[in-house]
TrEMBL record:
GO MF terms, alphabetically ordered: FMN binding; metal ion binding; phosphopantothenate--cysteine ligase activity; phosphopantothenoylcysteine decarboxylase activity
Full protein name: Coenzyme A biosynthesis bifunctional protein CoaBC
Gene that produces this protein: coaBC
Taxonomic lineage: Bacteria, Pseudomonadati, Bacteroidota, Sphingobacteriia, Sphingobacteriales
Domain DNA/pantothenate metabolism flavoprotein C-terminal stretches: 11-220
Record region (Phosphopantothenate--cysteine ligase): 15-224
Cofactor list: Mg(2+); FMN
EC numbers for this chain: 4.1.1.36, 6.3.2.5
Reactions that this protein is recorded to catalyse: (R)-4'-phosphopantothenate + L-cysteine + CTP = N-[(R)-4-phosphopantothenoyl]-L-cysteine + CMP + diphosphate + H(+); N-[(R)-4-phosphopantothenoyl]-L-cysteine + H(+) = (R)-4'-phosphopantetheine + CO2
Length: 224
């Protein structure tokens, strides 16, 4: 395998990728989740393996299967994902945070199944830790950090704001406005912004092709 991998651009590089949704438990049988399929993160992981990288994939609940040679860590909640990311990040050269992490989680998790009543019911939520921002805070100069931005309005403005606030080297703007892009689909329409705010736009493509575009841009920036 070593020989086959010779000449690959990311040989010897450690890449950390997160994928999928997180599930935030309400009680033993219910959770708050989102429609993320994990497809984008898995496509990125496969592409990074193909480029010769040593890949760790931290994933929330997903139906996706891992085929490539990589280390897979399964997590459920945003808090679990934070712990796993904090553990792996210091050793990582390139980190891509493509998971759709819950922004809020129930303040308390009921130990027994909550029974229905005649009255209305509400759940109190607290904010989760922003994993990407936490990684951006502790990032060293020799580490490359990539985030995603999922927007439905004023997308470029919000994406650039996230790029700057979270101390990223690259942000992938995911446009949900376009048909066939985003959650649940096999295609995505992305725009990239590097830390100098240079913009690169792409056509709507399969997530496998999108993963290739993102990895090519990362290679361009780190080998510069
Ligand atoms: N993210 C994270 N931890 C969170 C929330 C988000 O690491 N608790 C990461 C996502 O993985 C993504 C980036 O932050 O790479 C942007 O996520 P997004 O939901 O688009 O932005 P938010 O900063 O959460 O802001 P908002 O949802 O209000 O747009
Ligand atoms: Ca969010």
């Amino acid at each position: 395998i070593k020989e086959i991998k010779q000449g690959l651009p990311l040989l010897g590089k450690k890449v950390l990728i997160t994928a999928g949704p997180t599930y935030e438990a309400i009680d033993p049988v219910r959770f708050i989740g989102n429609h993320s399929s994990g497809k984008m993160g898995f496509a990125l992981a496969n592409e990074m393996v193909a480029l010769g990288a040593d890949v760790t994939l931290i994933t929330g609940p997903t139906a996706e299967k891992t085929t490539a040679e990589l280390q897979r860590i399964d997590v459920i909640s945003a808090a679990d994902m934070l712990t796993a990311c904090m553990d792996k990040f210091p050793q990582s050269d390139i980190t891509i945070m493509s998971a759709a992490v819950a922004d809020y989680t129930p303040t308390e998790v009921a130990t027994q199944k909550i029974k229905k009543k005649d009255s209305e019911f509400s759940i109190h939520l607290k904010k989760t830790t922003d994993i990407l921002a936490s990684l951006g805070n502790i990032k060293r100069d020799n580490q490359f950090l990539v985030g995603f931005a999922l927007e439905t309005e004023q997308e470029e403005m919000y994406a650039k704001e996230k790029l700057q606030k979270k101390n990223l080297d690259l942000i992938v703007l995911n446009s949900l406005n376009d048909k066939g892009a985003g959650f649940k689909t096999d295609t995505n329409k992305i725009t990239l912004f590097n830390s100098a705010f240079d913009k690169t736009s792409f056509e709507i493509k399969s997530k496998t092709e999108v993963a290739k575009d993102i990895c090519a841009e990362i290679l361009k920036l780190i080998l510069k």
